Amino acid sequence: MFGNLSDRLTASFSSLRGKGRLTDADIDATVSEIRRALLEADVALPVVRSFTAAVREKAKDAARSQALNPAQQVIKIVNDELIEVLGGQSREISWAERGPTVIMLAGLQGAGKTTLAGKLGRWLRDQGKRVLLVASDLQRPNAVTQLSVVAERAGVHVWAPEPGNGVGDPVAVARSGVERGRSHGYDVVVVDTAGRLGVDAEMMDQAIRIRDAVSPHEILFVLDAMVGQDAVNTSVAFRDGVGFTGVVLSKLDGDARGGAALSVRGVTGAPVLFSSTGEGLTDFERFHADRMASRILD
Ligand code: GDP
């Protein structure tokens, strides 16, 4: 995962190894290397700035206290800073106090929302929850069929537009889906929504209308980790448009550089709750910043 970033970060520590004491010049040189590694991985500039400033300051403090094994100290500082930038402690889904917990998925077309609906469905079902997936992506041909297929594989139910269910109107489908969830005693209703290839006003307006119709407990923004520099702009557009309570990083199994993963929390303020690591139903896990940081520095 993030092979190039891992290699570059590891290399940045190499000149420190074997040193008994670190000078300011040693630290500055290492921090410059770290900065270059992060920029090359497409990490957002403000995140790079705060990251490197924190590492520099802490490393200089550690050097002043004449810590043993300074290289190890710097690695630990970078590790802690990675955990911080990735979001620190992971958080649980905010469950509804009564009635079904409504989880709305938002993101660009191809980000992995429909696939995620199946994965979430399966994961929640395995925890004993009754789950209904709602097909409010009426934009993409086949999205409804795709959701029905993943629901069947996941062993959960699906609510899709049929005559009388509000054909053609994604807001009506979402509303009726959540009503169905409530009247039939489901624990969780996952609402899949339409994306576009790029951020567009019509898509955002539809997402906002769905949000207002179903008052979700969580809005999960699905971000394709492979998109590189566009990740920041897309995340900010969704944050300022429909808004979201959490992020799901998808396609972390691909050769993503790391920029999206390392920037999204800092840029949007929202925590990453899950990561998706493949096309299969079980290629999905809770996101743990500490585990991700140690994978990067492995
Ligand atoms: P949506 O338009 O946001 O609903 O995106 P889809 O769920 O249809 O996903 C788009 C494509 O990405 C599909 O071919 C999925 O199989 C694939 N995909 C989704 N999540 C992942 C993932 O975590 N890893 C990989 N490798 N592919 C994924």
Automatic annotation (TrEMBL):
<feature type="binding site">
    <location>
        <begin position="250"/>
        <end position="253"/>
    </location>
    <ligand>
        <name>GTP</name>
    </ligand>
</feature>
<feature type="binding site">
    <location>
        <begin position="192"/>
        <end position="196"/>
    </location>
    <ligand>
        <name>GTP</name>
    </ligand>
</feature>
<feature type="domain" description="SRP54-type proteins GTP-binding">
    <location>
        <begin position="100"/>
        <end position="298"/>
    </location>
</feature>
<comment type="function">
    <text>Involved in targeting and insertion of nascent membrane proteins into the cytoplasmic membrane. Binds to the hydrophobic signal sequence of the ribosome-nascent chain (RNC) as it emerges from the ribosomes. The SRP-RNC complex is then targeted to the cytoplasmic membrane where it interacts with the SRP receptor FtsY.</text>
</comment>
<keyword id="KW-0342">GTP-binding</keyword>
<feature type="binding site">
    <location>
        <begin position="107"/>
        <end position="114"/>
    </location>
    <ligand>
        <name>GTP</name>
    </ligand>
</feature>
<comment type="subunit">
    <text>Part of the signal recognition particle protein translocation system, which is composed of SRP and FtsY.</text>
</comment>
<keyword id="KW-0687">Ribonucleoprotein</keyword>
<feature type="domain" description="Signal recognition particle SRP54 helical bundle">
    <location>
        <begin position="1"/>
        <end position="86"/>
    </location>
</feature>
<dbReference type="GO" id="GO:0003924">
    <property type="term" value="F:GTPase activity"/>
</dbReference>
<keyword id="KW-0694">RNA-binding</keyword>
<dbReference type="GO" id="GO:0048500">
    <property type="term" value="C:signal recognition particle"/>
</dbReference>
<dbReference type="GO" id="GO:0005525">
    <property type="term" value="F:GTP binding"/>
</dbReference>
<keyword id="KW-0963">Cytoplasm</keyword>
<comment type="similarity">
    <text>Belongs to the GTP-binding SRP family. SRP54 subfamily.</text>
</comment>
<dbReference type="GO" id="GO:0006614">
    <property type="term" value="P:SRP-dependent cotranslational protein targeting to membrane"/>
</dbReference>
<keyword id="KW-0547">Nucleotide-binding</keyword>
<dbReference type="GO" id="GO:0008312">
    <property type="term" value="F:7S RNA binding"/>
</dbReference>
<feature type="domain" description="AAA+ ATPase">
    <location>
        <begin position="99"/>
        <end position="298"/>
    </location>
</feature>
<protein>
    <recommendedName>
        <fullName>Signal recognition particle protein</fullName>
        <ecNumber>3.6.5.4</ecNumber>
    </recommendedName>
</protein>
<keyword id="KW-0378">Hydrolase</keyword>
<keyword id="KW-0733">Signal recognition particle</keyword>
